[in-house]
């Protein structure tokens, strides 16, 4: 008898991962295909939509060859990078490369909206404060600077929705990805006509919005043949990549929290009501009836990668394991050395693109291990900055589920637990997006009956408990961390 699986597709920023996930929450087989980010200037970051599709085709072929034919694909479930979008012509062909969420060319549009009061009006209507990362300001930039493209544009789809269109011929998005466009009312869960009118863009360019757990169609016969799948496999609407990963890490009820210690740092809390606060981000969650409250620090694990590139460029591949060993030799507080991880500005809660990284309190006693540990602690402080805002709005938050590459470091896990003063839960399956895709597919197809059923698919490999004396020390140091930013931010803004 063939094992029943879901085909999970995760269209990431630098590559696509495809996996067979069985209905008990185990990843049977995975494949990953990288693709380049194409940049012609410091403010642009684009990708070829064909690279996403070619990566999926190649990845599915690989897992079929490696896993054999003893699998029955029950559904295809997708998630993808937010904001990144494709311009399609009347024949549904891409008119240009996709503009990714990393692209900042629309900063001029945001500045113009700020001057005219449009940005504030959008925030008042949608409860989402647009930045150059969002899709709508990028569309306005294309309208102004590439009129030959905009005039031919008949529809605009974000990354995962474009792939769903190729699979099924259907154009739909979901509330989590719609939240990242810039014209979606997160309270009413629908597009707002006034916002589109305000910026001179037709709502008709964007697809209808359906629940993340909707089955939007079936794989077309020609595509099924290309992928080596049977005809008629159902395709699930899906969600934004970060939110699907949060589901897969166990963020299933009000008050549940997930932190992602990846290139950027994210802390997300599940709320049963929308929140309007500039210091955090509030988007619709793929599970109906909930909102995703997010804090985002721009450079988390990438702060340690910067340190490696700057000071250990020829280090072997296990350098990050070595960094954990070094940091473990230093006591909590790094000998009074405090790091502000604002190497590319900072997002929440400051929204300060001109913030700069700082090592504060450097003394003759400090050696390399102190700097490594200070980086780990500084990233944890930046996440605590966001958690404190969330707790002002949501009340005391409980356990934090930790995922991302940084969660592999035993020292960084301990630092997080003690800085935040929370118990950490580390999922058994680190590919949380695959489990999240499985859960959404299960809710769509009926083999996952609800969030309690979904919770049984998320297992944890370890718990990390805070130690009260260390939490007290970090609470004092966190106060200094915040004071350093408030005292130096005007000077930061003077530095080019």
> What is the CATH H-level superfamily of the largest domain?
ATPase, nucleotide binding domain
| Structural class by helix and strand composition | alpha+beta
* Terminus-to-terminus distance: 64 Å
The CATH topology of the largest domain comes to: Nucleotidyltransferase, domain 5
Q: Which overall shape is indicated by the principal axes computed on the Cα atoms?
A: globular
Major sheet: order of its strands? 17-18-16-15-21-22-23
Unreliable parts: none
Major sheet summary line: 7 strands, mixed
The domain tally reads 2
* Number of separate helices: 17
Count of distinct strands? 23
Name the average pLDDT: 96
**CATH class membership of the largest domain:** Alpha Beta
Just name the CATH architecture of the largest domain. Answer: 2-Layer Sandwich
DSSP helix fraction: 25-40%
Estimate the strand proportion.
Answer: 15-25%
Draw up the topology in text.
Layout: E1 3-11, E2 15-22, E3 27-34, E4 46-47, H1 49-67, E5 71-80, E6 85-88, E7 98-99, H2 107-116, H3 118-126, H4 135-145, H5 147-150, E8 155-158, H6 159-168, E9 172-173, H7 175-178, E10 184-185, E11 190-191, H8 193-199, E12 208-209, E13 215-218, H9 221-227, E14 234-240, H10 241-248, E15 257-261, E16 265-271, E17 281-284, E18 291-297, H11 301-311, H12 319-328, E19 338-340, E20 358-360, H13 368-394, E21 400-403, H14 410-420, E22 424-427, H15 432-445, H16 451-455, E23 460-464, H17 468-494
